[in-house]
Predict the 3D structure of the following.
Amino acid sequence: MLASHHRVGRGVGVLFAMLTLALAACGSSTPGGSTSTSSLLIGVIAPFTGPDAALGPAYFAACLPAARAINNAGGVMGHKVSCQEFDTRGEPADAVPAAQQMVASHSNLMAVVGCTSDEAASVAPILNQAHIPMFCMTGQSEFNKTTFTYFHRLVPPDEFDAFAMVGSALDHFNYKKVALVFGNDIGSQAFVGPAMAALQGLGATVTINQAIALGQPSYRTEVTAMLATHPDVIFTEALGPTDATYMAEVKQLNNGVMLPFMGTSATIDPVWFSAVTGAIGVQTVVDKFTAVDLGVSFSGPGYTEFKTNLDAVASQFPTAPKYSQRGATLHLYDGIIQAALAMDETKSTDPTVYNTVIKDVGNGVAGATTVNTYAAGVAAIKNGQKVRWVGAGGLTNYNQYNNSQQGYILVRYDATGNEIKFGALTQAQTAAIIAAGGG
Amino acid sequence: MSLIVAAFGFGLVSMSIIAISAVGFTMQFGITNMINLAYGQVMIASAYAAYAVNNAGVSIWLSLPVGAIFGAVFSFLLNRLVYAPFQRKGTNLIGMVIISLAVSLVIANVMLPIVGYYSVSYHQNPGTTYHLGSIALTGEQILIIVLAVVVMLVIYALLRFTRLGKAMRATAANPTLARNCGIPTARVVDLAWLITGALCGLAGTVAGMNSDSFSVASGSEFLIPIIAASILGGAGSPYGAMIGAVLIGEMTEISAAIISPEYKQVVAFAVLVLVMVLRPQGLLAKRGALAAAG
């Protein structure tokens, strides 16, 4: 027997087993660059590899145009700004060393963006302790009333995404039976509880709740079980190739007929669109898919400035222009500019000084001048004015916990992957659903 | 009950894909003493090679050999340029495992700027769906099962009835003695990397067909059941890997039907751990095809 001749019989078996189990959790962090005292750095800490690898580039695409806008206006008090990726692989175990390395290796961090639901709970305490302002894309409800003073969130918690999906299903489409198909990662599972509570509270039926393992080669058994419950619509967020595989098998096992399916705001994403249309066809997605997204108008001078800079950074990051209608990209761009303007207002690069002013720049104080470009903000500050930033994502409304939100729109894709708004939830609708869901 | 039967049917497809890949993986270890953790990433690289051809308008079935050839050449070069030099320097088994893990990460990160982080899908027609009770399989899935059976028979014939197979078994059993008996072991090892690489490339392409969508990140997900099947059957035993593939493929699908899809891998690994406790050498470790004659 070969193995015995190599004197590795039992040992190899055990080694194999350990490796197999370890593989599910193993990963790496992106090494940091050299520390610079002459420039300022924006850390983009997010998954760039792993099942949620599509998230990181959307945030990097926010940083580059913000840095360009700032640098074209002379930098922050003369300090040029640059962006660097820090890969968490979407795993808390990888995120902690990545965050620690980022903080330890870069004394010139002016802000950090990214920190999705995959890693925010691990990363936010580290950044808060290091006094680094952060703009996080986490939807976890634990940050609704966070005590981290350096934490900022320009998007609603995930449970509000779930409430918006319920509102869309019940009020716009009159669906009554809903299948929940979400990835078993932390970020995706955050939607499930609120959606179930709201659906049941409003008299709808959850036909099945599937937490599916991401990245599996097939979900046919899961799809068969789901189809047997005869839902009107599938609620989903399972990133990477997972939704593509799952939905392709829905279509295949349902005799070529696709069920209506509805995604969270994270599914309004060129990577997701490409994957799912590749698997089930563009027309099927156009006809059967709807989603909820953050209430962004994609217009106005702030958006135009963002779009100009986003298109201009395509030479550095070719796919950047594809994120022109990604809510997260717009909001993180706004967060970075807010941090830069807060530094200008306080004339300080010390985060303990400018962090508290970020909220003032976002919400505006009495008599503040509204600005839509960084250059205009710097000019106003030089004239002794306070500024209010109204940027790519529109108005910011930070509450006492530095959480800001603007409501939801109901969207679908066109054949080229652009987002098309077809409705919005009124305040009354939203309030009723939130109450039913216990939010 | 009908769901369990349906899951059994889907398990046939899963086990077919795992079988092709696990046999290649375990033969690689059996003949070259190399636990190649870059195997999953080579699978994905091969799947992308086939995708390039398929995307140019060629049928996926005609693209399949491209994936296999790419896998063969890639694996051969990987051994010649990376693994073999380290082995010649006497790097131990653990060291080689770490090197292969590093290679896996390098391949993934080199691929990202080339193919992007977007998931891709083959242009394919799954064909008519055939029903047998609760089991429903497409024509394409049935062909994948047939392909796996053919590959298993070819591997069996290769190892059992050909001079190369005997040379592989001799090299696996005792490379020094085989060399002294006139067997060109270096060439045998080269051929082993080509053959197992072809299986790797074939499995990657078939896995991409079956999953309808794949990305660079899929490599590590593909690798886990492959290693599990290899251990379950007995490290280095191709027949064991086949049995391991059957068990892992069916257990993951049926557990998804009975318990929860969230735990489909957990159940498979629980059985794996149980086997490791009761029979650490694996199910067929004493009766592998690569065992020395007599």
